[in-house]
Model the fold of this input.
Amino acid sequence: MSSPWLELIAQLPAEIAEEAAARLIGTGASAVEERPGPPGTRLLLTHFRLEPGAAERLRAAEAALSAMGLGKEAVTLRQVEDVNWVEKTRGFFTAQPVGERLWLRPPWENAPPPPGRAEVVLDPGMAFGTGRHPSTRLCLLALERLCAERPPARFLDVGCGSGILTVAALRLGAAEALALDLDPLAVEGTLAAARMNGLEGRVRAGLGTLEPSLLGNWAGRVELLAANIFLTPLRELMPRFAEAMAPGGRGQGGRGVLSGVGYEQAEALARAAEESGLRVTRRDRLEEWASVEVERP
Done:
């Protein structure tokens, strides 16, 4: 089994992309790939193998980008598995239940889901989110409960990865979904997952975070939001989460589940949510990971 990698994606002005790539290489990053981003921007992608010294190299990379004026909200981190390892170990990715209503299965298994379960078909790859990671499961369990309480008309998935949360929310009763990510592979993967599950007409996917051009008329109208990313971008994006969510009143306020953090970071995440005007309604823990649920008053 090969070691997992930590993927860093930075969205930055096109004019500084070349210099930023050079600085990342100087910090010990692997080869840096440059891709087109939203108008006027470029995306830089690089990977750090999770081995001794990786944390120091990652901090150096973040400091190099910060020194160029790049805010933390423009940087996404996620753990990914090596593609060849995933292909060689398909046996690990078998159909499984999650919670009371969901059934996850890979496309190479054709058995029908048990009665009463909503099927999510997912092809694992480099994009984060196979349903095995505790933070993903925390989000799935929260979506199951929140959708049962009040199915949302508009579901927003920030840092969509493989698209697992988008597909699950739609299977659980959401009417439409908007999935956002800084990684073009994640955007493509989410759209592919939507097609695989027969949901392409109900999903939009965009390259970015919470830019007004991507939210469009969803700004201030999102009824349910999920963000399974790291603590730093969660805190940086919290004010935008609050702005995107529908205001409260008669129990109709926008709700959200935030994860991707260790249980020892849950308090910092909850505090950031409250400082942005959100109400913390629930916290959960699974193994060493935590989720925080919020609501816009």
Summary: The longest strand covers residues 5-13.
